[in-house]
Amino acid sequence: MKKTLGIVMAVTLFAGSGLSYGPRGHGLVGAIADRRVAKNTSVKAKVNQLLDGLTLQRVATLPDEIKTWDSNPNAFHLTGHQGLEDQLRAFVAANPNPKPGQSNPPGVPSHHEFHFTDVPVFGNEQYSPGDVGRSHFDIVQMVPFCIRVLRGDEPENNPRAITKSVALILLVHYLGDIHQPLHVGAEYFDAQGNPFDPSTANPGFADQGGNKLTLFTFVSGKLIARGLARKEPTNWKLTGAVDTWAEQLANEIIPIAREAHTRLEFTNIKIAPGSIPGKDDIKSGRVSEKKQSGGMFYANWAAATVKTEIHKGGWRLAALLEEILQ
Ligand SMILES: [Zn+2]
């Protein structure tokens, strides 16, 4: 999603649907993992120490909250946890989000880029070996980076200013993001605003849908977390080395992003004059539900999907932490 053009996605679904989850969903992933990790005293102690006593549930939303520091350094403070706050501020300073119309020096990413990847949903591809929408600093690359920091394979004074504590905070959040279909799969549009399959030569414009569709609401996070931490989700276990998990997770969710996009219709796609394919996103657009001939309505399907993904996300986060902090 390179340079953002201040896109606003008008969503013409009934409220309470969507495939993305905001603070409550992230908090729920953290809360499930808190309960899972509590059973393992040595891992729990390490988490406590790295987070200065804060819970995974609390820190799960920090990587989004710190985006408010871009424009207002006093937007919020981590009162009582100055050491953590200083580390998070150093992280934002090392990966600054450029002001509109400006860009960072080459090789310096924005911390906003770390939350997603934009694998096209049009074709049949997986994360590898394609290149459209992927970057050295997308979520599939940053998750293993944080794992390396926590394991000591990457020094804490790395150019991204990701210390062990920051790495843990980011992992808690990114594990939530990578279980959101629209943070991984993206719709692309040609210069006329029609959906199409982008290529390196003709990269088009991405939808930035996942970041703008935050509509899902929960009944009661606390009650749900207890149940979801107890009940083992189906098909949640990952195999192989933990640093391959992010790519496995991305590949798992892409078909769901694909299904979401077949259930939705994008209209009034606007591309700002002078936009550069492969660099800029669309300016605005409308997404609405296609008429269903029987079957589930999008909103119900989306709600069920989100719940399943949060459930798996929480269990996988706990398993990941046990694997790397053991
Ligand atoms: Zn995020």
Percent strand: 5-15%
Tally of extended strands?
7
- Going by helix content, strand content and strand pairing, the class is mainly alpha
Average of per-residue pLDDT values: 83
**What's the N-to-C terminus distance?**
36 Å
Write down the secondary-structure element order: EHHHHHEHHEEEHHHEEH
Low-confidence stretches: 1-18, 209-220
Bound molecules: zinc ion
Largest beta-sheet characterization:
3 strands, mixed
Radius of gyration over C-alpha positions, nearest whole angstrom: 19 Å
Q: Helicity, in percent? A: 40-55%
Number of helical stretches of at least 4 residues: 11
Q: How are the strands of the largest sheet arranged?
A: 1-7-6
Globular, elongated, flat, extended or rod-shaped: what is the shape?
Answer: globular
Structure explained in plain terms:
The chain is mostly helical. Helix content is 41%, strand content 8%. The chain contains eleven helices and seven strands. The protein has helices spanning 23-37, 41-50, 56-59, 62-65, 82-94, 139-151, 164-177, 209-212, 221-230, 245-263, 298-325, and strands at 8-11, 119-120, 185-186, 188-189, 205-206, 264-270, 284-289. Strands 1-7-6 form a three-stranded mixed sheet. Helix 7 runs antiparallel to helix 11 (298-325). The radius of gyration is 19 Å and the shape is globular. The chain starts with 7 loop residues before the first strand and ends with a helix.
